# Entry
Amino acid sequence: MTNSLEIPGGVADGQKASASRVESKARTVALAGNPNSGKSTLFNALTGLRQKVGNYPGVTVERKIGRFYGAHGQAFDLLDLPGMYSLQTRSPDEAVARDVLLGRRDDTPAPDVILCVVDATNLERNLYLVAQLAELGLPLVVALVMIDLAERDGWVINVPELSRRLGCPVVPTVAAQGKGLVELRQAITRQLNGPAPHRATLPPAIEQGVRPVKDVLVCVSDKQPRFPQAEAILLVTGTKEQAVAAPAGVQPALTQARQAIAAAGVDTISATVHARYAWVETIIEHTVRTRRGAEATLSERLDGIFTHKVWGWLVFLGVMAAVFFTIFRVAEVPMDWIEAGQDALNGWIERVMPAGDFRDLLTQGIVAGVGGVVIFLPQILILFFFIGLLEDTGYLARAAFIMDRVMSRVGLHGKSFVPMLSSFACAIPGIMGARTIDNPKDRLVTILVAPLVSCSARLPVYSLMIAVMLPGAYSAWHKAGLMLALYALGLTAAFGMAWLFRKTLFKGERSLLLLEMPPYRRPALRVTLVRMWERASIFLRQAGTVILAISVIIWALSTYPKPADPQATPAQALAHSVAGRLGHVLEPVIAPLGYDWKIGIGIVSSFAAREVFVGTMSVIYSIENGEEDTPALRDALLGEKRADGSGTYTPLVCLSLMVFYVLAMQCLSTVAVVRRETNSWKWPLFQLGYMTLLAWLGAFLVFQGGRLLGFT
Amino acid sequence: MTATNAPTPLAGQPVGQRVEISGFTLPEGVRLRLLEMGLTEGIECRVVRYAPLGDPMEVQVRGYFLSLRTAEAEGVLVATAD
# Structure
């Protein structure tokens, strides 16, 4: 990003030139607002695609900064804060938003102006946040969005009066059509050194109680608080847990203030909220008129269908079936193109380059690695297209509403449903889709269990092992039944582990569902497309690089060291490589599961991606075109004998192997994505560990239990 | 609206019922969040519907729609007008 130069004196909007105006540094505007208030749309409209997406250091909260230019060409950095209902925070997202506003984060510039998005169709609750922001005393600009919808619903809002009562500019904005953007830029420029907005008067006992806390706060803090008054209000009127987090030096004053307020018969928790809402109610009373009575809106009538006991489920099943079908089947088309492109590229490289290690690195390491990254794109794009659509139309809240009862039984969230469903296609979009869950604990549990749901990469392994376990004599129904049982096992494991994590790791965490049911709206296609692209580029940059590196490493492990004999078959070469030797090393660990060292190689080489198992087995048993030729591979596996002459792939071994693949992580792309989504190595490694252990235990129980029961 | 009845939990109120919030028996943090979402003492709200499986429930308050689990709604005390 480039900084634009500001010419001193070149700005003739009546502000006095100050030192900060001379320097070329961009000023910072914080974009705050309730979740679902249309903040992203406004952010995109103001900044275009001049934006940077990253993470706040140390937390999983996404940071978006974009550049726009003010009325006189000054540069502004627009900080898109996470959606928030209040400065009394409940989630890490809200905590980051609060800390940025209070200027507490060293990694983010403190805002000069706050731009608050206010949804005109939900004015009263949205103005509660404005009431809190006003207490900071920073210059404020209100972007009044969805005013067209509010008017359609029969509301008339007196904008000049609203502006007068709030003590700050209020700009009606229809971001998707570009209406009000010029006025917003002007208002922000004017407000740079503008006055503080009006604010609600808190009960006298609280105002008095806050004062000493504020003074102590100024004295004891290492870093001078930017808004000591607002910080003191938050401390005095917050919960006891929040108060404990305050600097130790403040505690005596804080306890004293709380006691004094309580002695005056005032409830610190509710009195402040009541005072702010009372202020908001007065403003509403003087600025909003309704033309209509309390007739049911279109949204309410639609909800009569979409959350109906019968129709609700049918609509839900239909929508989810469409999502699932598209991710599962439609994505196959571009995925086939990507594979074909990869094959064509490899074919071309093999024609123009002499055989050798470098050519193998290019074809089997790099091209296969890049292909392995890009192959996920269609599913990610499709899932985020649907999520965008479901969120923007308001249906996602309804789906969560009807599914919450089921999901909360096992400690998941109503919104966990879509990520879990898409994990049937691939866990990667599923885990990325868990972003729609705002409660961080619910989101983490969802991420941790999503890969247990059987994804499409397990299908080749299931098909092969079912073909070996149930040869010719069994009907397609048996095979389908077994396949279904495997899917059911994965889903059961996912729900079971979610329940277990809730009971152990996140014990005592009360999961709270407060779900806003927004009115149904027409989705803004442009916003959805921008969001799709954002997700895809994050995936490519951050997970893609890791996946590519891992592909190259796995290729090297299964290539080196090379056998001395240049005439060695691919099977011999694989057995000689590090991966092949690991198969032998692993034998004692996997023998109790019924596996020999050859299966060990398959497991090692498919550590990065499950479907590789089939390809590796083809190499080991020297089947040409193994992946397309399952019958030949099946016959080879059926013919494989142990030293004692008994078959290696008994039905019990096949079942044990299938259970292993149902439960094992065996997907380093998922590890890379979980690393990106949780912003730490702790959770992906924990997940890899628990799933591998679970898989081993599951396979062990099947094999040893089966033998005890007399099966082979 | 004049509240005449003794306070009862919000959970279980029939669909369409208009009630006035009169108090909470909830942990501090949950109470604060419900208050900030607009469910303040004295405000009138309307039970809009229950989810097909009976939980969560949806209420209309301050002109918007909010769903909450019945576990929380048990701790929201309301008075009914009739």
About this structure: Residues 569 and 622 of chain A are 8 Å apart (CA to CA). The longest strand of chain A covers residues 62-69.
